[in-house]
Amino acid sequence: MRYGPLCRVTAAPKPKTSEAHKRSDGRTGWEELRPVFLKASFLSSAAGSAYFEAGGTKVFCAVHGPRAWASSSIDAVVHCEVRWAHFSGRREETRTAAGGERSRPSESATDEERELGASLARTLGTVTRVEMYPKSRIEVSALVLEDDGSSFAAVVTAAALAMADAGIEMADLTAAMTAAVVDGNVVVDPNAEEERRASGTVMVAYMGNVGKVTDLVQTGEMEIGQLAHAIQTGCQAATQVRGLIKACLEKQAGKVLKKRGRGA
Amino acid sequence: MEKFVAPGDKVGEVRSYRPGHGVYVHNDILIASLVGTLITEKPTNGETMPLLRVSSSKYAGGAPPLPDIGSVVTAKITKVTPRAASVEILVIDGRPLRELFKGTIRQQDVRQTEIDKVEIYKCFAPSDVVRAEVISLGDRHAYFLSTAKNELGVIYAKSRAGVAMIPVNWQEMQCPVSKAREFRKVAKQ
Amino acid sequence: MDQEVFQKVHPREYLARFLNKDVRPDGRSLTKARRVNITVSSIATAVGSAMLKMGKTTAVAGVHATLVQPAPGAPDQGILDVAVELLPMASPNYKSGRSSEEAICLTEYLRSLISPHINMSKLCVEAGLLVWQLRLTVYCVDNDGNLEDAILLAGVAAMRNVLLPSVRIIGEEVDEGRDAQMVEVKTENEEGEGEAESIIAVATVERTNSLEIDTYPLPISFILFDGKVLIDPSVAEESVCDSRITFLFRPTGELRGVLKPGGKNVPENLYQSCLTMAKERIPKLQAKLEAT
């Protein structure tokens, strides 16, 4: 919870050195993921949609289209809009950096949101079989309701589920994961508190079955060995999440079939 | 045996199967690109290998509908000019669209005979509903459609009195109230 | 012609065909409103939050709190900002980018109905020095019609859910331990120059101060179609309606306002039957909100 543009949390929970591998939110392993909750097809007006929750981080994502698009390229274009809710706990930090401001009546996307939207579009554009949807645009819209760390990775994962739910042809189900260096250790799926203390983070979007990385963003500083380790453990964790995405889709498909069965 | 697959799942190898809808080939391996049930089709005449395709769980025909060459569409006329009629495509191959796609029926694509004598305003009027076929992906703005077949053309039109008209012959419709006749390129029922 | 195709091609006739049999396309009767479901406090980063579902229509409302210096003209008044965001995910008709006219209208609608019920002096920490600035944002994530009611109910539920920490201004930084959080607010120099001073305050981690909102608006909307009235319209029904009318009540059941933005005239008898239906529904809506 943050209250002022220049607030400082003095009561930050301190890492307990006495217990090995104990993390601030109670996890006991550096590679342990937070509890994950996934749901597909939960919005009525979109072609496909997803809700993704990892610990406190909560993301909504919807896919519209393919819709008509006058473009010079014959292949489909993927367009993404990513927003952090005003109350998600994230916007303020990024806004303060850009010069503190009073509220606006209604807001447009920040530069960071635009940049991350473009980044998501590149990732999805790579994994989507764009040649199947000539002259069209696939539109992805994501909203981070609560940011308790690793939120962009959550957006990528939610978007992959929403795209699959929309019946868009893709090379693989992409899942993303963040790894951070906190107090010299590489931790996977950091929460907001760990992200604040991290000296460096790396986010990797990975196609678990095809075995290819589609996006990699490293910020802060990391030793080369740590980076390699972070990418590797990040990819392993992403593969784990891919399994959860598939399970979620299978469950949804079962629901649809049941409904059809009843209707017949 | 029905098998559930998701994009990225390996489903077979090129030496034993052919890829169908929702399946692609990467490094000689067949991989699913859609969510759904994997279906194996026995080789038909001339083919030696069975075909693998994915039947999508959410959409009857697989992926979301998109106009393609040969698709039969239901469309609403939005504008009529001496050279062409503009339409909004509503339904493709019996599946309603979620999104708006625009189409154009050019003068030369209205009917089969006497192409150069076609007067567009004697064939369509704004708000008419037509059945047409996609003949090309068209230009930047619209798909090109054709009604040059007996079964294609106007399937619903309102008279000036605001009542649905009844086809009289292939180029006229009649208002059941005022008995007035209006010209249309009528689709054969 | 297939039902779905018929709806796409002739939306008005499609709806009329159902209404002639006194039923709506989603199976409801003309007088049946959709089920409302409200969950609160699910967003830990907000001081108050609510997620509302009305049938398939979904809105998420959250309140963000900041400590600021009060405006010069109102030294003991807090500040409330309101925004409604219609995200592209909510409907194929919403485009990304700048706020649409619809979003701006809904923002004004929400602001004008909620602001009068908030006691701004409750948001004062120390007159002339420090007040709370609250920002209520309602995100529409799924529009299946009757957004007006959904957004207002979600906004009211989120504001009623607000709990603020106790704040105390202190002279200098002291470590208050795990139960408190330091807040430093830069004061604006009158001339805008010179050394900026700051107010240092300490906020409790525990949040117990409610805004004590005891009266609030409860909306019930209808549409008029071919001389028939339909309560709580879906998006397909709204798209072909002749006019729209919203009644606003107090929680006690008294009518406090009617909104009828344009459209065809509503005959007196239909107006009365809307009002009767609305009055019946108010206690149910009120109970839903009070239960949160």
Automatic annotation (TrEMBL), chain A:
<dbReference type="GO" id="GO:0000176">
    <property type="term" value="C:nuclear exosome (RNase complex)"/>
</dbReference>
<dbReference type="InterPro" id="IPR001247">
    <property type="entry name" value="ExoRNase_PH_dom1"/>
</dbReference>
<protein>
    <submittedName>
        <fullName>Exosome component 6 Mtr3</fullName>
    </submittedName>
</protein>
<dbReference type="Pfam" id="PF03725">
    <property type="entry name" value="RNase_PH_C"/>
</dbReference>
<dbReference type="InterPro" id="IPR020568">
    <property type="entry name" value="Ribosomal_Su5_D2-typ_SF"/>
</dbReference>
<dbReference type="GO" id="GO:0005730">
    <property type="term" value="C:nucleolus"/>
</dbReference>
<dbReference type="GO" id="GO:0016075">
    <property type="term" value="P:rRNA catabolic process"/>
</dbReference>
<feature type="domain" description="Exoribonuclease phosphorolytic">
    <location>
        <begin position="173"/>
        <end position="233"/>
    </location>
</feature>
<feature type="region of interest" description="Disordered">
    <location>
        <begin position="91"/>
        <end position="116"/>
    </location>
</feature>
<feature type="compositionally biased region" description="Basic and acidic residues">
    <location>
        <begin position="91"/>
        <end position="105"/>
    </location>
</feature>
<dbReference type="GO" id="GO:0034475">
    <property type="term" value="P:U4 snRNA 3'-end processing"/>
</dbReference>
<keyword id="KW-0271">Exosome</keyword>
<dbReference type="GO" id="GO:0071051">
    <property type="term" value="P:poly(A)-dependent snoRNA 3'-end processing"/>
</dbReference>
<comment type="similarity">
    <text>Belongs to the RNase PH family.</text>
</comment>
<dbReference type="GO" id="GO:0006364">
    <property type="term" value="P:rRNA processing"/>
</dbReference>
UniProtKB/TrEMBL annotation, chain B:
<feature type="domain" description="Exosome complex component CSL4 C-terminal">
    <location>
        <begin position="98"/>
        <end position="137"/>
    </location>
</feature>
<dbReference type="GO" id="GO:0006396">
    <property type="term" value="P:RNA processing"/>
</dbReference>
<keyword id="KW-0963">Cytoplasm</keyword>
<feature type="domain" description="Exosome complex component N-terminal">
    <location>
        <begin position="4"/>
        <end position="39"/>
    </location>
</feature>
<dbReference type="Pfam" id="PF10447">
    <property type="entry name" value="EXOSC1"/>
</dbReference>
<dbReference type="InterPro" id="IPR019495">
    <property type="entry name" value="EXOSC1_C"/>
</dbReference>
<dbReference type="GO" id="GO:0005730">
    <property type="term" value="C:nucleolus"/>
</dbReference>
<dbReference type="GO" id="GO:0000176">
    <property type="term" value="C:nuclear exosome (RNase complex)"/>
</dbReference>
<dbReference type="GO" id="GO:0003723">
    <property type="term" value="F:RNA binding"/>
</dbReference>
<dbReference type="InterPro" id="IPR025721">
    <property type="entry name" value="Exosome_cplx_N_dom"/>
</dbReference>
<dbReference type="Pfam" id="PF14382">
    <property type="entry name" value="ECR1_N"/>
</dbReference>
<protein>
    <submittedName>
        <fullName>Exosome component 1 Csl1</fullName>
    </submittedName>
</protein>
<dbReference type="InterPro" id="IPR012340">
    <property type="entry name" value="NA-bd_OB-fold"/>
</dbReference>
<dbReference type="GO" id="GO:0005737">
    <property type="term" value="C:cytoplasm"/>
</dbReference>
<dbReference type="InterPro" id="IPR039771">
    <property type="entry name" value="Csl4"/>
</dbReference>
From TrEMBL, chain C:
<dbReference type="GO" id="GO:0005730">
    <property type="term" value="C:nucleolus"/>
</dbReference>
<dbReference type="InterPro" id="IPR015847">
    <property type="entry name" value="ExoRNase_PH_dom2"/>
</dbReference>
<dbReference type="GO" id="GO:0071028">
    <property type="term" value="P:nuclear mRNA surveillance"/>
</dbReference>
<feature type="domain" description="Exoribonuclease phosphorolytic">
    <location>
        <begin position="216"/>
        <end position="281"/>
    </location>
</feature>
<dbReference type="GO" id="GO:0034476">
    <property type="term" value="P:U5 snRNA 3'-end processing"/>
</dbReference>
<dbReference type="GO" id="GO:0000467">
    <property type="term" value="P:exonucleolytic trimming to generate mature 3'-end of 5.8S rRNA from tricistronic rRNA transcript (SSU-rRNA, 5.8S rRNA, LSU-rRNA)"/>
</dbReference>
<dbReference type="InterPro" id="IPR036345">
    <property type="entry name" value="ExoRNase_PH_dom2_sf"/>
</dbReference>
<dbReference type="GO" id="GO:0000176">
    <property type="term" value="C:nuclear exosome (RNase complex)"/>
</dbReference>
<dbReference type="GO" id="GO:0071035">
    <property type="term" value="P:nuclear polyadenylation-dependent rRNA catabolic process"/>
</dbReference>
<dbReference type="GO" id="GO:0034473">
    <property type="term" value="P:U1 snRNA 3'-end processing"/>
</dbReference>
<dbReference type="InterPro" id="IPR027408">
    <property type="entry name" value="PNPase/RNase_PH_dom_sf"/>
</dbReference>
<keyword id="KW-0963">Cytoplasm</keyword>
<dbReference type="GO" id="GO:0071038">
    <property type="term" value="P:TRAMP-dependent tRNA surveillance pathway"/>
</dbReference>
<dbReference type="Pfam" id="PF03725">
    <property type="entry name" value="RNase_PH_C"/>
</dbReference>
<keyword id="KW-0539">Nucleus</keyword>
